[in-house]
Amino acid sequence: MTSLHDIPLNTLLLSATDKLGYTQATDVQQAAIPQALEGKDLLVSAQTGSGKTAAFLLPVLHRLLAIQSPYKVSRALILLPTRELAMQTQEHLQQLASFTHIKAGLIIGGESFKDQIAVLGKKPEVIIATPGRLVEHIQSDYDLSSIEILVLDEADRMLQMGFADDMKLIAERCNSKRQNLLFSATLDHEKLVRISEGFNEPVTIEVHSQKQDHANIVQQMVLADDRKHKEKLTFALIEEEQPAKAFVFCSNRVECEQVSSFLRYKKLKVSYIHGELNQSLRKKVMTELRQDRIQVLVATDLAARGLDIAGVDLVINFSVARSGDDYAHRIGRTGRADSNGKAVSLISALEWNKMSSIERYLKVRLERRVVKELKAEYTGPKKLKNSGKAAGKKKKKK
Predict the structure, then answer these.
(1) Is the pLDDT of residue 306 over 80?
(2) Any idea where the Helicase ATP-binding domain is (predicted)?
């Protein structure tokens, strides 16, 4: 494994990585940082938890230190899908830039627009933003022509959230001679081609595809009858596993709040997070989770992407993920940095085929698990197709 000191980074940045205890470059850092330092445009496929945030922050900071601007302008823009990921990235940047003069401005929804105008007016070297709010500033005549480096992190997630037009507009408003660094869990998304049209002969790097096995994560399934049964199973699993931290993933806001209420009734230290929660409450929840004042976080898929929470031992899929990619990102909350983790999916009769499709897509087989005294009446399909899906009754020909 390559040491970060073997990569020609500014000594002020290496002092910061030493202070943070980052000594060895991860695979994505080893592959991406040297190419980015050469000024090349990149298309990088890498999972959350692979060290990809530092893989773009370090070359961005290095460039800002190596090439001084004669004017006080914002020079780098980092675009991310969610407020939580943006705040997390700002915190990471502040740590890596702690020995430098470089400042970052945060432009996200849910915060005062007027205060953000003041932040942008100070011309921070780096702008960290979510697409929707930044477009609002552009529509109020904010100028991005000084941006020399554009980073698109979790690009596939931004596209899934419907930000394709916003991303395209933002890219068009940046300096046409900029460097582009795009990071995504997958490079297969059809709209990525449109987003990367303005890139200059980009280098493609693929590290830890989301389809690769999570070798250090035990993946299990527990059959369930209904929502009430799933609630009891969730509590029983947490009691059995005794995780330091656990994530419970639900399909929507209502389910998220219901499960959280049940676990709170059971005296667990629990909270929830979803897209309709206001910004101050979302900040409070994430702070409490990082400070170990919460053991269980119940969440919609908002929290599945990007959030870097250390020490998550257990992931429970209360409802089956919508896709194989979403499933991979959910369980990727655990088993990080070579630690071991466990992911348990609660499967009802109506969800069997969806889970079967995920298994086939990711080329995995979930091991069956039974929770004592809570065995489901549902025992799985009576007959299976070759695909693993339930075989239905053949319809009689008329």
Answers:
(1) no
(2) 33-205
